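Example record

The entry below shows one chain as it appears in the dataset: sequence first, then structure tokens.
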Amino acid sequence: RRRAHGGGMSGSGGAGGGGGGGSAAAKGGSKWASARTKAKGMMHAAAVLKTVPHGVEASTFLGGHIAREIKDAVPVMYSVDQAAFRRILGAVVLYMQDEEAGADMSTRLQDAAGDGGGVVNTLFTGLLFLLRAAVRNKTTLSVVQKDLTEMNVPPDFVKDFVAALRTSRFALEDAARENAPGFPSLEDLRWRVDVAISTSNLSRALQPSVLMQMTLSDGSIKTFEVPVDKFHELRYNVAKVLKEMKGVESHPVMRIAFDAERQKMDDAAAAAGAS
């Protein structure tokens, strides 16, 4: 009986020991689970900091909508070094001035990357969208820097982007105007007065008309005839528009705008000379 009782006590003790071990294992597993959850949270937070945050679309120079190409490019920026970013940004600037030369440079960068061009292509497209929007909207450099920072673009890359925009802004604006879709402009206008002596109905007409010839910017030449009364109406309307333009230009508000634009051009030229 004593042995049986002792054996029973021993068995009870063994069961108690097993329960203690299970409790320790459960506590250890709980700690590991908590650590894994915390690590996942930190990784998620770090990933969020490398993407365009939600809710910034309405406050950026992009016009209330951030293109998918830009959102795809921001995380990729954290996988390249500054030298590679500058090369891709230079290709974008060149592309906006000369599409053929910029495309050739982009192709060479894709070949050199050796990853099928995925990273280069993503960054090139995103930077092209950003630079075009900044030039099209004539956004100030301070606003560009602030908005790119809010979009989680790496700080060093923000500085490089702003510097490239400062240096090449006027060349990019000129190229954008030249490449913008639109009708050809008037290059030259000639006119002469013709007099119809007779017609098929009248033997003595003596009716004057104005023959006009326009040379357009695309090289085409348009010739047409204008009645004298319409020609005088054209002269009157042109003179009226010129007078109104002169009045607008002499307005004090326009003078302030012209002075501000001139100052901006001088500052950009000085910055370009310093760089």
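Notes for this example: The longest strand covers residues 186-196. Residues 1-19, 38-48 have pLDDT under 50 and may be disordered.
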